[in-house]
């Protein structure tokens, strides 16, 4: 009880200081509004759980001419979930855990862990901008995997758009730098290739084209190497 009182006093003091400088701090359990940053982030995770790319993208904001970035930054989670599920369903969990392209940060358990941490997380609101600070626990990330684990210093930036809180892509990339993710040689283009290859592997697996996990690994590796070589050649041509 004493610890809880001290924590409450601490939050009140911090809130008073932040308010004086134009900010307001709130605790996750107090943000029950369906439109709050915490609620929005929870709904985003649930859209990823359902492998619903269009719904998940709806919780983010970016300029229309750069919207394709979201197909990659969010698509990588969904394509990986579909690949995990496909390999597990066809070859079993043991094979999945040995699979070269297995991602354990998009499992139901990892997504559920991040959602649970939102209950005690905080949000700093400053006008039309906000930062979600997820309260991770000691073993989160490793050995307990968590979706979009960001460590103690990580925050999720939000911006209010037409009265609704959205995850701010520009702030994550560095304000006004999201467009750089589309430039040749950027990690976003490499991620886009990875998403495309993963989705191709999922479709081929569903069509029964693989008889072993090794065949999936070889298929994906060949495609990724070929696309990487293609990117390098494109860069060389652009520099000439």
Descriptors for this entry?
single chain; alpha+beta; 53% helix
Radius of gyration: 21 Å
How many separate domains? 1
Cα distance spanning the termini:
70 Å
Encode the helix/strand succession as letters: HEHHEHHHHEEEEHHH
Q: How would you state the average pLDDT, rounded?
A: 84
Unreliable runs, pLDDT <50, ≥5 residues?
1-23
Taking the sheet with the most strands, its summary is: 6 strands, mixed
Number of helices: 10
Shape: globular
Side by side, the strands of the main sheet go 1-3-4-5-6-2
Structural class: alpha+beta
Helical residue percent?
A: 40-55%
Q: Could you tell me the strand content as a percent range?
A: 5-15%
Number of strands: 6
Report on the structure:
The chain is an alpha+beta fold and 240 residues long. The protein has one domain. Strands 1-3-4-5-6-2 form a 6-stranded mixed β-sheet.
Summarize the structure.
By secondary structure, the protein is an alpha+beta fold. Helices cover 53% and strands 11% of the residues.
